[in-house]
Write a structure and sequence with these properties.
Layout (H helix, E strand, L loop, with lengths): L1 E2 L8 H11 L5 H17 L2 E5 L5 E7 L8 H13 L7 E7 L3 E8 L18 H11 L6 E7 L9 H9 L3 E6 L9 E7 L3 E3 L4 E9 L3 E9 L2 E10 L2 E9 L5 E10 L10 E9 L3 E5 L6 H8 L3 E5 L6 H4 L2 E7 L8 H12 L4 E5 L21 E2 L11 E8 L14 H13 L7 E7 L3 E9 L6 H6 L7 E2 H12 L6 E9 L3 E2 L4 H10 L2 E8 L7 H10 L1 E7 L5 H13 L3 E2 L3 E5 L16 E2 L2 E2 L2 E2 L4 E6 L6 E8 L2 E6 L17 H13 L9 E7 L2 E7 L12 E6 L7 E4 L1 E4 L2 E7 L4 E9 L2 E4 L3 E3 L10 H15 L10 H4 L5 E4 L1 H22 L56 H13 L2
Helix pairs in contact: 1-2, 2-18, 4-5, 5-16, 9-14, 11-12
InterPro entries: Class_I_gatase-like, VWF_A, vWFA_dom_sf
Protein name: VWFA domain-containing protein
Amino acid sequence: MSFSLPQAWVLLLPLGLFLWKYGQRPGLPMWLRAALLVLVVGALSGPELRLADAGSDVVVVVDRSASMPRDVDRTAQELITLLESQRRPGDRVGVVTFGREPRVEQPLTSRGGFGGFTRAVDAEASDLSAALDAAGALIPDERTGRVLVLSDGRATGVDARGAARRLAARGLAVDWRHLARPEPPLDVAVVSVDVPAAVSEREPFQFSAVVHASAAVTGTVRLERNGRVLLQGPYDFQPGPNVLPLRDLIEAPGLVRYQLSVAAPGDGVVENDRGVAVLRVEGPPRVLLLTNQSRGTLARSLAASGLQLDVRAPFRLTLDDLDGVGAVVLENVDASALGEPGLNALAAYVEEAGGGLVMTGGRSSFGEGGFRRSPVEPLLPVSLEMREEQRRASLALSVLMDASCSMGVTVPDGRTKMELAAEGVVAALTLLNPKDEVSVHMVDTASHEIFPLSPVEEGLPLGDVARGFSGGGGIYVGEALRTGRAEILRSEKPTRHVLLFSDASDSEAPDDYQRTLATLREQDVTVSVIGLGLPSDPDADLLREVASRGGGRVYFAEDAMSLPRIFSQETLTVARATFVDEPASLEGAPDLPLLGPLSAQGLPQVGGYNLTYLKPRANVALRTLDTHGAPILAMWPRGAGRTVAFTAEVDGPYTGELRTWASLRATLEGMVRWTLAGAAPVADAVVRTERRGHLLRVTLDLPPGEPLPGAAPTMVLLPGDGRASPVERPMRWEDEDRLVAESPLEGSGTWHPVVRLGAKVLRAPPVTLPYAPEFEPGSAKAGLELLRALAAVGGGVERLSMTGLFLEAPESLGRVALSPWLVALALAVLLAEVAARRFLSAPRLRSPRAPATSVASAASPAAPSVQAPRTTAERPAPESDTAAPPAKPAEGGVDSALDAARARARRRLDR
């Protein structure tokens, strides 16, 4: 037995003394009161009875990484179903799956069956250690259990034996079942492509590749550089490692990508037949200008300034594209043109790698360009918020959300598409002002009202929108548009807009959509579409036509993570509140000299600008002279880099007098050069990278005799594709002038390490991992050895059969709370005490007192009376015509409690 509040027993002493002094009763009631006191104090102490019959917990950990057999889901579900059929009362089964990260598929449950795997995992890695920790977190500390691992043992990440030891410390054993692909008779794998850390342009250099073969075979080798074939031909591979010497010469600076592919008859593992390496060809920092006007004013001005300029149309950025780039200039570029991973890569490039960013204004930039709620927004020195004073007219908005079954699919971060869409709708609704009206409906084969057209000032049930749901089938576009028409035509607002969100691969039943859209256009209602998917998806043309006939815009969210940003972008565009299309004069601000010797006299008038607000601690060089006083040119350092916001349009219909301004070229050049200054190299410090399998090693060599940095340097690992978050690792001293950091590469692709050294950063040579670490050459025996080692730590065994797993597991100590029973017993004792005191016991005894006078007995009236001497207090009362009250009976002589009560009443009434 245990007590949740044992301190309550201390109350027995004072309460017992109180009962002894003031609550005594003769006989049974006193014993019942004492028992009642003990029961009440016992209930307060929270007693629990622990019984060893509460069952056991088993968490099944399923490896679903790329190296597993293709039918692993079916096999694992069969084993889990067999295990569930053996549960006893109190036994529970949970399921955890893992790839790069663990996912809880089913919490511990004692009833029901496992319904299958529904949560997506990143199969590029196999973090068994994190999966074991997740399994341990499912099992409460007070319960016993086991962990069953279904895996091939080819784990990546940190050593899983540490997690097994943490489980063993809690008494949780790790059992295992080996599920693996058949070991192939032949495996030819590209182990590495080793290139120099960096070379100069037109510098001849040599490099090599290592190919491992499990047996002698003649195969084919193909070498490409940036997609161009340099070498192709047969090669005789010998068992073990084969070193291939190679050489090349590069004409221009930048990042060069080499790919070596091998092919051999009978190769059983094709996933590791490709090796990739990137080589940095050094040169002066380049300026990457992304613009739709390759010969416009901005491109000509920067080219004439002597900068190393690379002009390209907007494209989906990666960190590979930004290697060797000192600053990125976005001229009126929509955020969707860069892609969601590209926006992440651009943010990491500025904050972590020390790059520069310049953004210029226009109808496709800043808030109207979709940069609000994007990873780039925190980089900018201006805020993209929409304030109440910006609004020109109120609007009515009808939002139609796809609630088909496809919206229930999860994305890599574990959320569903519907949850991301709901987050976007909520973000859009928060931009509306109190006078606006809005309605939200979710549509699958029918329309489901979340709330009708309502004024924002009355409050919106945003929680209902955020919860969302996914129904069945696809979205019926015709039904959705009819619902939007019925809602929006109820409003009399000057601006009325319908926003349809639909899956570009699952939009069905358009019905009479053309007639519905024609009716809406006749009533000056516009319709825009957000399509989830690619522009090439089956129903993308239908969504384009809806937007075209509705007089609105169409967006395609290729990445569901971009939905909140796109919803905000469309709302800002409809509200027409973030772009000022009227001319505005400019004035110089105190920070204008930061860009060089620029004069504040003779400033031009701009034809329009993006309305933004200066952030705290940002510098402003130019601002408008209108009622907004808005920043036109602002700048600030951000992270390790620098950013500039120029909210006027450099070359377009709203340029105004800016095009003929004499100092325009100097201003544009000054903006770009100011951002380039943030990427100054650290003198004499050298950073190197080395990849050993999937383990990255970064070394930093400091100049001898130089003072040590004030803060310990750290290494930040940036994913080249921008799809993962940066990883920061501390660097440790290896000798007096060298620091080192190591980190596992959790997936294939290019990785860009940077070293933070005080306020400066050093960009280390990038490295590549051509395929998932699990496919590195090796034997299946290594995986078996790891699984056996995990089991040996805590006494686990190999489970060839699921039979008897629960029977062999120790049962948990069940907790039975006794407080409710004690309270019930206390109530029964209380009733018994009342009954005993009223019906079964004598009246309460009091201490006897000496009689004041001698009272003659009524039974012997002739007896002589003997009178005692009187004291002052015993003087006789004056005679009265009324009868004297009866003499007070002696204490203890009353026959019943009722007689005593009557006597007390007579005394009070003086009768």
